Amino acid sequence: MSSSGAIVVAATFVWLGMVLAISFMEAPLKFRAPGVTVPLGLGIGRIVFRALNAAELVWAVLVIVAVAIGSWAGVTVPIAAGVACGALALQLVGVRPVLTRRSDHILAGEEAPRSRAHLAYVALEVVKVIALLWLGMAVLAAS
Question: Fewer Cβ in 10 A, N or C end of the chain?
Fold first, then answer.
């Protein structure tokens, strides 16, 4: 495996693990903990997801650079990387601002209408997980 391939595999699977652990385990479980209110859970979630998204940006840049300098047979690796990075970009630019505004209202003690933005974020997380699995397996299969 080339050094760019090793970087893509490592970054991809670390990124995937972080998304699975936080988005699909920590986020839903925190609201089941005793004493965790919706405002408290939202406050914790904002901090955790801000940190996750910052780390994801680092992994995405690393993947993009390694894919760009690597030599790949076919277009599978670049497309899978593009789908994962595109899902992240949509979350950060299109969905997170909407979720932040809603949580701002709730944390200020206001009533906020239900939003489909959370469902959009989760759908993009699923797309990202699939794309990261696809990317990691494609690079491993090419080695």
Answer: C
- Joined tokens for residue 92: 């950060």
Q: What span, in angstroms and rounded, lies between the C-alpha atoms of 54 and 49?
A: 8
How far, in Å, CA of 139 to CA of 76, rounded? Answer: 9
Please give the structure tokens belonging to residue 137: 């397996």
Nearest to 30 by CA among 17, 45, 46: 45
Residue pair 135/85 in contact (Cβ under 8 Å)? The answer is no
pLDDT digits (tens, 9 = 90+) for 56-77: 999 999 999 999 999 888 899 9
Residue 6 tokens, joined: 């090793």
Place of tokens 């899902």: 87
CA 112/CA 69 separation, integer angstroms: 46
**Cα dihedral 114, 117, 122, 127 sign:** positive
